[in-house]
User: What shape does this take?
Amino acid sequence: MTKNGYKAIVIGISAGGLAALSKLFSFLPNGFPLPVIVVQHVAATSNRFIYTLFNNKCRLTIKEADDKEEIQAGFIYFAPPDYHLLIERDETFSLSIDAKVNHSRPSIDVLFESAVYVWSSGLIGILMTGANSDGAHGMRLIKEHGGLIIAQDPKTAEYPVMPQSAIDTARVDKILSIEGIGEWLRDDLVHLTRDVKNESRSG
Amino acid sequence: MKKTAIENIEITLLLDAIFERYGYDFRHYSRASIERRVRHFLSKSECDSISGMIPKLLHDESFFDIFVRDFSITVTDMFRDPFVYQSIRKNVVPILKTHPFVKVWHAGCATGEEAYSLAIILKEEGIYDKTTLFATDFNDGALDAAKKGIYALENAKKFTANYQAAGGTTSFSEYYHARYEAMALNQSLGKNITFANHNLVTDTIFGEMHLIMCRNVLIYFEKALQNRVLNLFSDSLVNGGILCLGTKESLMFSTISKLFAPMDENARLYQKKVL
Ligand SMILES: C[S@@+](CC[C@H](N)C(=O)[O-])C[C@H]1O[C@@H](n2cnc3c(N)ncnc32)[C@H](O)[C@@H]1O
Assistant: This one.
């Protein structure tokens, strides 16, 4: 957790995701204080090769999320191909093969929605390049629960539809290029101050 | 108290009510999926809160019927994860061949696609005739569909590709005929399959099995319940019997892990040791 009460980052990304994520991850420093959880739309049959590709460029450990695994800072977790990824209240993962949502499994909305119920205002949602609007609803929900949401600037996205749909659907806090998001996570996130007093767990 | 915390209490009460009233026990299912389904069901119902659905569920059996159908997810495919079937052919079939008769339990069979897939493999390997396949689920609607063995024709392309990737030895079109928008599997495939209602949470063991397949069911359970069901499987297997789990499920953290040896870790095939 950061001093200002952030507990986790969820990222949704689709077409164009490979290049965008490897650039974004190169900004994240050793000791990054929050777990990062990613849903990337990929073909059901895709193999794990992409994760090793990312690992070379990144100081954090990248892995596929396991069922009932405990979520920890220092890791970047990916939803397995063809499974939805959900967050449990005890900060572990669950997987499901429920029907596709927004024509997608894993679906970004499924992750974002379940994460909101666990981390509410402690959640940061980021939606990046992609050619459909999965995730827009989840972004709005994060915002409604007091979390912070960032869209990749559609002008800088290889596929602008996805970040644009977030901007159209929710009051996005920040619209940034990949470098902008990376620098914000690296430099600003931990120094941010905000009032989280009335958001404590017992409430 | 925050709204989401209150909703969490409401869901607990709702699951308790369903268990007390109908005996269906969802209390130890993975909560995030349950929560998602409850919210989804609420949005389609005329109730305005989760707890508001409780009286209706208690008093209106037809409302509960819709609920439970909605609640049990029966998404499945023929030859899902083809490499698993390939491994079954290569590693499991030779063992099954050594038995005079073969008993298979397919737990959580949903609408039956996996059971028929296995039947095809066993047929091609020449051991279907000595096999009895028990395919169970707790969803009667799904079991009815499974007994019919009729699926939407739009699946044919995917099933065919899966069948080939799974190492099928003939043409998949041998196994069904298309009529209108449906593909009907050959009746002969169901000859030795018994579809039956069985609840993994509340019912008991299921005879001396040589192979148990239970894929993508345990991910819906909490750890402790996973462990209990895995023990049920272990108790239902003969020595040397084989357990096949979903590709994101594992024996690793269960109390039965020492009783089994991995046969193909990737395909999640485990063999019960002869003690
Ligand atoms: C997602 S489907 C998996 C189907 C198939 N095995 C596959 O992997 O494609 C899960 C199935 O488990 C069944 N199920 C869930 N809880 C169960 C229980 N307590 N007892 C028996 N079946 C259960 C559901 O009805 C559903 O058909």
Summary: Residues 82-272 of chain B form a domain with the Rossmann fold fold (CATH 3.40.50.150). The two ends of chain B are 54 Å apart (CA to CA). Residues 3-22 of chain B form the longest helix (20 residues). Chain B has a mean pLDDT of 94.
